[in-house]
């Protein structure tokens, strides 16, 4: 069958049109990406400016030293006293308002000439750099003259001086590290730093200067060093508080490394003891345990609360959101990949899929440790009047099954059993189960099963 020439021409025309459309689509994507970056930068500047102002107002309102210094200055300056009285009476003139503002700045900075010189010079350098003036220095450089105040910006900050974070932080988990090798939870903690630090020298200052009092107070108190944040993601603001210490992974001990120097049984699971100070739970997990305990004590089943909200299965590597809904680690990752709600500017974010819940999955999630999950599975099958002693006996009995030669577990199990017998003979009622306390006990002693089976 012979194909007419017109068909070939139409085919080439279609291919050409397709190429043109693909080129236009690619150009539009680049323009959209550029516009998105501009919008994100503008929102970042606006957000960090609002945060800086909020922090300034909070510090100003609670600054008793500033008030005392202004009072002392007012006693020596009748003009300032009149300006303050006029501002309080809401009948002040612009000159009186300016006088009060200058007095506040003078107390905060230690002198008007110094702060005006530094700010003016920085603005001029920034203007030259933005307009491409040759020889313009970086206005946010860390190197300054020794006799001037220094504004230090981390190397990770962008040219505008606003802190950025790594783009990976938006998709990585921020939950606590489980420490178990089978959790598949290897997400790093990110440090935070909200705004550039301002470094000032401790030279001679005028009387009643606020800066001298603050510098003296800082020398008397030890300060924790700050860690710089990463600088490739422009969306997320950072925090000025020192970052929390990174929780190191707990590793399963090898054969011969028992609980407290005791020999381990070949082929059995081992567990390294943790001190009470190391057992710290996230706030979301503490809230979840409180809700579980309340429901169980009122006779309600917690069976469905322990299942994953997406796959509806029991998993040992579970996560709990701030809304107290549970998801397994795999489903949390799926929800983040399949995020559908959002817009092109702020991005698409995954949300909890439970009815009437608007919690963001990419928010802080807390790990439900395998030991705690196994305790909750057993706790669900008990009566509403279960007590702490029964919980401890169950966990120590499970630990003895895994490590029958461990003398520490044997002695503790005998001690708890004896306390139960003594309380029963004395007619004392056992203490109701405190689920949070028992969860910490489980983290220290319970050796969970490798595979979870639905109950």
UniProtKB/TrEMBL annotation:
Composition bias type Basic and acidic residues, residue spans: 214-226
Superkingdom as given in the UniProt entry: Eukaryota
GO molecular function, one term: zinc ion binding
Disordered: annotated span: 151-269
Keyword vocabulary terms for this entry: Metal-binding, Zinc, Zinc-finger
Composition-biased stretches (Acidic residues): 169-187
Protein name: RING-type domain-containing protein
Organism of origin: Exophiala mesophila (Black yeast-like fungus)
Lineage, uppermost ranks: Eukaryota, Fungi, Dikarya, Ascomycota, Pezizomycotina
């Amino acid at each position: 069958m012979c194909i007419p020439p017109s068909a070939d021409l139409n085919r080439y025309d279609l291919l050409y049109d397709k190429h043109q459309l693909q080129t236009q689509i690619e150009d539009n994507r680049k323009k959209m990406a550029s516009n998105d970056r501009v919008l994100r930068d503008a929102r970042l500047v606006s957000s960090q400016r609002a945060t800086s102002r909020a922090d300034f107002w909070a510090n100003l309102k609670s600054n008793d030293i500033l008030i005392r210094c202004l009072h002392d200055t007012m006693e020596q300056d009748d003009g300032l006293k009149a300006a303050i009285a006029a501002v309080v009476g809401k009948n002040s003139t612009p000159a009186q308002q300016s006088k009060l503002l200058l007095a506040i700045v003078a107390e905060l900075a230690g002198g008007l000439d110094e702060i005006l010189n530094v700010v003016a010079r920085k603005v001029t350098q920034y203007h030259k750099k933005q307009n491409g003036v040759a020889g313009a220095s970086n206005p946010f450089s860390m190197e300054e003259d020794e006799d001037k105040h220094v504004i230090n910006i981390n190397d990770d900050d962008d040219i505008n001086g606003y802190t950025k974070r790594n783009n990976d932080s938006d998709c990585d988990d921020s939950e606590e590290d489980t420490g178990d090798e089978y959790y598949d939870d290897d997400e790093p903690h990110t440090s935070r730093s909200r705004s550039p630090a301002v470094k000032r020298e401790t030279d001679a200052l005028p009387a009643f200067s606020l800066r001298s009092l603050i510098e003296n107070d800082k020398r008397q108190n030890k300060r924790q060093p700050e860690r710089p944040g990463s600088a490739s993601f422009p969306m997320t603001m950072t925090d000025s508080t020192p970052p929390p210490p990174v929780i190191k992974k707990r590793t399963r001990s090898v054969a011969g490394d028992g609980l407290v120097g005791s020999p381990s049984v070949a082929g059995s699971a081992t567990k390294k003891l943790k001190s009470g100070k190391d057992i710290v739970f996230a706030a979301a997990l503490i809230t979840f345990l409180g809700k579980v305990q309340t429901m169980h004590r009122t006779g309600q089943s917690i069976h469905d609360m322990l299942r994953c909200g997406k796959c509806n299965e029991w998993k040992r590597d579970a996560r709990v959101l701030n809304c107290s809904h549970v998801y397994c680690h795999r489903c949390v990752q799926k929800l983040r990949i399949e995020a559908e709600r959002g817009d092109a500017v702020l991005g698409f974010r995954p949300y909890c899929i439970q009815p009437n819940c608007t919690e963001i999955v990419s928010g802080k999630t807390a790990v439900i440790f395998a030991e705690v999950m196994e305790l909750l599975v057993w706790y669900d099958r008990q009566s509403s009047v279960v007590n702490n002693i029964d919980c401890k006996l169950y966990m120590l009995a499970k630990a003895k099954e895994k490590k029958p030669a461990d003398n520490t577990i044997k002695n503790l199990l005998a001690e708890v059993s004896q306390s139960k017998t003594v309380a029963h003979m004395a007619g004392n009622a056992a203490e109701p189960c405190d689920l949070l306390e028992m969860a910490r006990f489980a983290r220290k002693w319970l050796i969970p099963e490798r595979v979870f089976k639905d109950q």
